Amino acid sequence: MTWDDVNFKDNTITINKTVNRYRKADYGFTMAVASPKSKTSIRSIAMNSVVRKTLLKLKMQSVPLLQNYLMWMIQGISGGSYPAFCL
């Protein structure tokens, strides 16, 4: 999920990506962001007030930090672990 997927005006989150984890030939894992396998996987969900408040706070405080962390994770530097959610 990226910030483009979060609509604070309509209080919705669009689900339109999947994260795939692949085993590396030499050691560990790597990850890639891709489109979902089926069109029915693409959907919008409503944000409740707790989620909205939390995402707004996170966006205001740590956008550059989070982007660097996600690039680090996607490039596989983490040794195969990955976050529970991505923004």
List keywords for this structure.
single chain; 87 residues; alpha+beta; 3-stranded antiparallel beta sheet; two-stranded antiparallel ribbon; 1 helix; 5 strands
Brief write-up:
The protein has 87 residues and is an alpha+beta fold. The protein has one helix at 49-74, and strands at residues 6-7, 12-15, 18-23, 29-34, 43-46. The strands form two sheets. The protein has a three-stranded antiparallel beta sheet with strand order 1-2-5, with no helix packed on it. Strands 3-4 form a two-stranded antiparallel ribbon.
Average pLDDT confidence is 79
Basic shape: flat
Give the tally of structural domains.
1
What class, by secondary structure content? alpha+beta
Largest sheet: 3 strands, antiparallel
Distance between the ends: 5 Å
Which spans of ≥5 residues are poorly predicted at pLDDT below 50? 80-84
- The gyration radius over C-alpha positions equals 15 Å
Main sheet strand line-up: 1-2-5
Pattern of helices and strands: EEEEEH
Please tally the β strands and state the result. 5
What percent strand? 25-35%
Helix content: 25-40%
DSSP summary: helix tally:
1
* Quaternary class: single chain
Give a written overview of the molecule.
The protein has 87 residues and is an alpha+beta fold. It has one helix at residues 49-74; strands spanning 6-7, 12-15, 18-23, 29-34, 43-46. The protein has one domain (3-74). A hairpin with a 5-residue loop joins strand 3 (18-23) and strand 4. The radius of gyration is 15 Å and the shape is flat.
